[in-house]
Every structure is written in C-alpha cells, then in structure tokens.
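User: I'm writing a tutorial on reading structure tokens. Could you give me a worked example: one chain, its sequence, then its tokens, then a sentence or two explaining what the tokens reveal?
Assistant: Sure. Here is the example chain.
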Amino acid sequence: MGKMNVLLYEVHEYFENDSNFIKAQIEESIGTVVLTGEIRGKGTGVKIYVKDLNKEKYHHTLIPSLRNKGYEVEFLYTEHELFLF
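And here are its predicted structure tokens:
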C-alpha cells in the first residue's frame, strides 16, 4: 500500500471514530512547507478542513503527518495553512 493510501485510510478511520466532526474535505496540495517561519521543503501534502459539531468552530486545517517510515499517521491542528509531507 502506498504512503498516500495509508494516510487516506487512517484519515477515514479517524473521522469514523470521532463523531464530533460532521464535515471533512480532503485536498491534495502542492506547495512549500512553512513551519514557524522556516522553509522545510517542497512536495505534495494533504490538507483536511473540518467542522467541529459541538462548538460549530472551524479548525483552519487538520494536518495528517506520516511517521514511522510512512506507516503511522499523527494529526496536528493548526490555525495556519501548513503542509507536512
């Protein structure tokens, strides 16, 4: 299974198991990674936009980050448009 498929499967499982989120839009993006003002690299990433059911608050971006050689996914909330590759 390719890394993108692993990531998308884990994202699907994440939303299946968390009923707080009623909307998710997955968007493949190509751009530059910027973390705390430092450029980390370029490539393809995935941005996920979600809406919180309980607070009706939009989280700007939920970023899935591949760990453990691409077979473990960790999620990070951010107020900024960032990509992790």
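What the tokens reveal: The longest helix spans residues 3-17. The radius of gyration is 13 Å.
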